[in-house]
Design brief:
Rossmann fold; 6-stranded parallel sheet; alpha/beta; 3 domains
Length: 528
């Protein structure tokens, strides 16, 4: 079997799996995949020379489209750059397909250029690793590629011998699907029925989720039944369905639930993740349940909508006074924040930006302080994304570029200056619908806002990342128009200018770190 035929058959299996987009990085060893792509016009290709950025971008496309997306590179250290996004996709359960071209096995450890040990490069983070031998293709492995589940990354490693640039006659073929092993939940466990039947104060926590109309409808039924529903912005739940500031009172005896039901992925707030003393039911189709809020007593191995629908049959006689107390406190908290006047700061800039985003657009919140301020700001009915699988600052801009590609709508990536500098190669793609909104507070001051580091100022110079780099110059190097913003009126004007322009743009917002620290203390103090 020729090298070209082997590359073609792998792409054929991926196409059958539903792949319609590939992030491709230049190279020689992966040239057979480039040649084979001409037989698969349904696969759109985006070129990104930076492999680390390419993997995050592919992850963003997959998250936005709910389809597997391929990221393809040459051999050696190029593939090693995928690891941060692989880890993120693992915890976010995003179908990222890593297609790495490899050198033949007899070249490994023989001091050949760009030859490393690739088959186990990503450890156990891929949900599945498909590593072919040098000269043949295993039909069973091709089946796995074509029909494996779409809820995490997979790694496909294909050694390719020279010649790399010859083609041959090929024909697309079907692949027989293996027997399905997916199981459905037959019934709710008796222990869960008992917990719900005995509980008059149920709190339903919705973690990070992609927009889901069916889930919104199901949550409306739970709220109508008297259950308190709470969600952060990254859960993509309408504000009229869920409380936003649940972490502020969840440890207060007057607000403590006697049963907690959780769905979705991570929460941003650390306060909500302290241990609850009540029983916990977690709904997620995973092998194990994370003990994010304490020990999970019952784990329903099924999807959020199906699991909640089955549990809701047993909800009855909720304490209305308890739920009213929750909703009243949450409303008062939102009104208190909205009524206070804050000087120009990170918080006011992010709040103004979120209030100015249209419902037919989307928002990506970068990690560190950006996502934390975002949780305190009102928003519209637009999708909100954030890389909360591992909560690292790397890859935020790249992921948002992928989300703009996948959603085919305008997006705003609100991020700190350090995050921007760290991931600025995302601008290499130059997507005009994705606009970085960079909060320039002089190098990242999240460590001045959280307990512990703020009591050890003598190590601040090592924890923070001040930089003499210019956001304007970096933007210009990639062909982006730079907008400098120093107040709310300027931000409104800049965002409208971006909408009115067909050019690629970056918005830089300059804030005073002292004002930002004061605002943070007010927002998290007893005065609000």
């Amino acid at each position: 079997m020729t090298t070209f035929e082997r590359a073609f058959l792998v792409l054929n299996a991926l196409c059958l799996r539903g792949v319609r987009h590939m992030l491709l990085s230049p190279g020689s060893r992966n040239a057979p995949f480039m040649l084979a792509l001409s037989h698969f016009p349904e696969i759109a290709v985006t070129l990104q020379p930076d492999e680390r950025s390419a993997a995050y971008t592919a992850m963003g496309v997959a998250q936005a489209t709910n389809r597997p997306v391929v990221v393809c590179c040459t051999s050696g250290t190029a593939a090693a750059n995928y690891l941060p996004a692989v880890v993120e996709a693992h915890y976010m359960r995003i179908p990222l397909v890593l297609l790495t071209a490899d050198r033949p096995a007899d070249a490994v450890d023989q001091r050949r250029g760009q030859t490393i040990r690739q088959p186990s490069l990503f450890g156990d983070y891929p949900k599945q690793s498909v590593c072919f031998t040098d000269d043949s293709l295993d039909d069973t492995l091709l089946q796995h590629i074509a029909f494996c589940a779409n809820d995490g990354p997979i790694h496909i490693n294909l050694p390719l011998r020279e010649p790399l640039y010859e083609t041959s006659a090929v024909e697309r073929t079907a692949i027989t699907a293996p027997a399905s092993t997916k199981k459905t939940l037959a019934a709710v466990p008796s222990e869960a029925i008992s917990f719900i039947g005995q509980s008059k104060r149920i709190l339903l926590l919705v973690g990070q989720m992609e927009p889901n109309a069916a889930l919104q409808e199901e949550l409306a039924h739970w709220k109508a039944a008297g259950v308190m529903v709470a969600a952060e912005a990254t859960a993509n739940i309408s504000a009229d369905l869920a409380m936003q500031h649940v972490d502020r009172w969840c440890r207060d005896a007057d607000f403590a639930p006697d049963l907690l039901v959780s769905v979705g992925r991570d929460w941003v707030s650390k306060a909500i993740k302290n241990r609850f003393e009540c029983p916990i039911i977690h709904v997620e189709d995973t092998a194990s349940a994370p003990n994010a809020f304490g020990e999970v007593r019952v784990h329903l191995h099924t999807g959020a909508v199906e699991g909640l629908s089955m549990l809701r049959r047993y909800v009855a006689n909720q304490d209305t006074a308890y739920s009213e107390r929750w909703y009243r406190a949450d409303k008062e908290r939102q009104e208190a924040i909205g009524s206070r006047s804050f000087p120009w700061s990170d918080f006011t800039a992010i709040r103004q930006c979120m209030q100015s985003i249209h419902d037919d657009e989307f928002l990506h919140l970068g990690n560190s302080s950006a996502v934390r301020y975002g949780l305190l700001s009102p928003r519209g009915n637009y999708p909100v994304f954030s890389n909360r699988g591992t909560a690292g600052i790397d890859g935020s801009l790249s992921a948002s570029v992928g989300q703009a590609i996948g959603l085919k709508r305008r997006g705003w990536c609100v991020m700190g200056d350090v995050s921007f500098f760290y991931d600025h190669n995302a601008l290499w793609i130059g997507h005009p619908q994705c606009t970085p909104v960079v909060i320039n507070n002089g190098g990242g001051h999240i460590f001045q806002l959280i307990d512990g580091p703020n009591k050890q100022p003598h190590i601040a110079e090592w924890q923070q990342s001040p930089s003499s780099m210019s956001i304007e110059h970096i933007s210009g190097a990639f062909g982006f128009v730079h907008h400098l913003v120093q107040d709310e009126a300027g931000l409104m004007s800049a965002m409208q200018s971006v909408r009115d322009s067909s050019e690629k743009c970056v918005i830089e917002i300059v804030t005073d770190v002292r004002n930002s620290i004061d605002a943070w203390k007010k927002l998290h103090g007893d005065s609000l």
